[in-house]
Amino acid sequence: MAWKIQVNAIETMDNVMKRGIPIASRCCLCKDAAENRDHLLWQCSKTEQIWSWMCAKFNTQFDFTCIEDAMKKMKQRSKLIKDIWNSAVIATIVAIWKLRNKITHEEKDLNAKFCEKMIENQVKVTARLSKATGYNNLEKLKITREWQITTSSTNHPTMLLEAP
Ligand SMILES: [Zn+2]
C-alpha cells in the first residue's frame, strides 16, 4: 500500500531527525523545551494544536504518541476514511518537520496555517486517488464535508446508520 512506502520514508526522515537535531537546542516552535524528535512531533504545545485541529476534522482526539498508534486509530472505519486518515497523519508529520526547518532556516513568521494547508492538500489528493467505494454513512459524510472532499461513494438513505 502506498502509505506503507510513505511510512518507510517517514522512518528514514525520523533517523535524519535523530541525527540532525542537536539535543541541547530549544524547540523553535514553543521555545519552551529542549528540541528532540519526540518533543517536536508528539509533545510540543504548538504541534499539539496542529494534531488536535487535524483530529477534530476526523471527529476524534489526539491521543497517540507514535505513528503506529496513530495509524491504528481509524482501523475500524471505512476504506476512504482510513485512506485519508493515513495520509493526513503522514502529511502532519511532514508538515511539522517542514515548518520546523523553515522557521529554523528561513521564514521565521510561519505558523500552524502553513501546516494546515499542506495537510488539507494531501487529504484532497488522497481522496481523489482513493479507490474506495461503498455507501456513505453519517460519519463519513461529516468527515468528507469537514475536508471539503467529494467521493465516489453513493448516498443511500437507508445506510445512514451503517455500523462503522
Ligand atoms: Zn516545542
From TrEMBL:
Any Pfam family hit: zf-RVT
Domain Reverse transcriptase zinc-binding: 2-51
Protein name: Reverse transcriptase zinc-binding domain-containing protein
Species whose genome carries this gene: Thalictrum thalictroides
